[in-house]
Design brief:
This protein has 494 residues and is α/β, with parallel strands linked by helices. The chain is built from 15 helices and 21 strands. A seven-stranded mixed beta sheet has the order 14-17-18-13-12-19-20, with helices on both faces. β10, α9 and β11 form a beta-alpha-beta unit. The protein is globular and about 70 Å long.
């Protein structure tokens, strides 16, 4: 990652962005557009097409025609595998362009985006390319004279709705396994970060993905997103985002064709530090960045720090030191450790949640100020709050910003009760030097991912998914394929 290369790409002019329908780039039917605004400095990067119901109809029809025509769904697995590998090759060849484009769009620090966006996306396409020719059926143990076969078949048309925080990474988590299974996809990026996924769509075409197999409709959630969720010819919706939107997607499914809906929703993830943690300095440093990286805009962010009372003050002091020393600034400067908040709307929410926490009795140890390291941009210093009680909104509701809520505990049972004391169950962390305690905590905490003596970092080989109001289904790993495959029984009398 070279700064001069980043600087050469940061000011490239971008043309108006269009929809991809049936392999053709085209404007919205009614010509409507939205401005793509950069959180780095508030500038307008370009316009994106604002799709409506008619555009969704065309995109779904193209996906259905491609699926029924069999040019991808019935392509030999070895050939599909080659196409997915070519997509990964092209992502890697354009890593700098994709990383900088994404950062200009959503403000993630380039040091993280370089790995987490194109780096991760290429890895996802490679992983699922290798899965294509390993999707096996079954022969059932039937009585003599009868043959029972279990076929695994693609679902059909997949609607994928992707958020703005890591669009390329999360988009690949959904697109790659859906394609590997033989489905066609209609992709709806967030209106706040569409550019890198539009670039990925062109890469897919250039790599030989047949026309109509991947379609991209940009626009608002209330417009394009709702139309996709309600479309009677979409077989499945996969979504990452807020709980409120997840509920609306379930309602849309119930009111349309009862399509399957898989949801990766919010979290209020507990990160628990016991007094026998092997390295408190490391625990504090990793825990701090487990909430502050990408300005706290990470689904699994460890936004609640539960600290055993005997070490509470020492851990808070160390984390405050990290928060005060971390470099917040231009996300396209490779030295920056925390980039921009994604939008003015999100920055305002961060400030409102922080103010409410203080009103309820929490104390701000450091941070929380709105700053302007780049004029016109949206930036905030990381905030550390102490005196947070379980009943407070800051301990119950997801902020999705760089705000850490710290709560002391005395016993292991109390830590478990606090950890499980929200409606969420996405991720958690445990810091302890006792192997037995680590295993007990992994079993007792209600979360889809539990980190031990670290926070963050699970790769594509393991699943990501939540329980309770953090959602259902899984992205990543071989298990993600389960969403995109139907089981069909053949019962044959010989």
């Amino acid at each position: 990652m070279q700064q001069d290369r980043i600087d050469a790409l940061r000011h490239l002019a971008l043309p108006p962005q269009q929809l991809l329908v049936g392999g053709q780039w085209q404007p919205a039917t009614d010509g409507r557009t939205l401005a793509a605004t950069s959180p780095i400095d508030g500038s307008t990067l370009c316009t994106i097409a604002d799709a409506g119901a008619a555009d969704v109809d065309r995109a779904v029809a193209a996906a259905r025609a491609a699926f029924d025509g069999g040019r991808w769904s019935r392509m030999a697995p070895a050939e599909r595998k080659k196409v997915l590998h070519r997509i990964a090759d092209r992502i890697e060849a354009q890593q700098a362009e994709l990383a900088v484009l994404g950062v200009r769009d959503n403000g993630t620090e380039i040091s993280m985006a370089w790995r987490a966006e194109p780096g991760s996306a290429a890895g996802s396409f490679r992983f699922y390319a290798e899965c294509v020719d390993k999707i096996m059926g079954e022969i059932a143990p039937t009585p003599e004279g009868t043959l029972g076969l279990v076929h695994r078949e693609p679902v059909g048309v997949v609607g994928a709705i992707v958020p703005w925080n890591f669009p390329l990474m999360i988009g690949a988590w959904k697109i790659a396994p859906a394609l590997a299974a033989g489905n066609s996809v209609v992709l709806k990026p967030s209106e706040d970060a569409s550019l890198s996924l539009l670039a990925l769509a062109q890469i897919c075409l250039d790599a030989g993905l047949p026309e109509g197999v991947l379609n991209v409709i940009t626009g608002t959630g209330a417009g394009a997103g709702d139309a996709l969720a309600r479309h009677p010819d979409v077989d499945l919706i996969t979504f990452t985002g807020s709980g409120g939107t997840g509920r609306r997607l379930l309602q849309a499914s119930a009111e349309s064709n009862l399509k399957r809906v898989y949801l990766e929703l919010g979290g209020k993830s507990p990160n628990i530090v016991f007094d026998d943690a092997p390295d408190l300095a490391q625990a504090a440093k990793v825990s701090a960045m487990g909430i502050f990286r990408n300005s706290g805009q990470v689904c699994v962010a460890g936004s609640r720090l539960l600290v055993q009372r005997s070490i509470h003050d020492a851990v808070v002091e160390r984390i405050a030191q990290v928060a005060q020393a971390v470099r917040v600034g231009d996300p396209l400067d490779a030295r920056t450790e925390i980039g921009a908040v994604s939008s003015t709307r999100q920055l305002q929410r961060n400030q409102q949640m922080l103010a409410q926490a203080l009103d309820e009795g929490a104390q701000c140890v450091c941070g929380g100020e709105v700053i302007r390291p780049v004029p016109g941009g949206t930036y905030m210093r990381p905030a550390v709050l102490t005196g947070v009680q379980a009943r407070m909104q800051i301990a119950q509701q997801e902020v999705f910003g760089p705000v850490l809520a710290v709560t002391p505990f005395d016993t292991e049972d109390e830590a478990v009760a606090l950890a499980n004391g929200t409606v969420y169950g996405l991720a958690a962390g445990v810091w302890t030097g006792q192997l037995a305690r680590a295993h007990r905590m992994v079993r007792r905490i209600r979360a889809g991912v539990v980190h031990v003596n670290t926070y963050g970092g699970p790769d594509i080989t393991v699943p990501l998914g939540g329980v309770r109001q953090s959602g259902n289904g899984h992205d990543k790993s071989m298990h993600a394929l389960d969403k995109y495959l139907d089981l069909k029984t053949a019962w044959i009398q010989l």
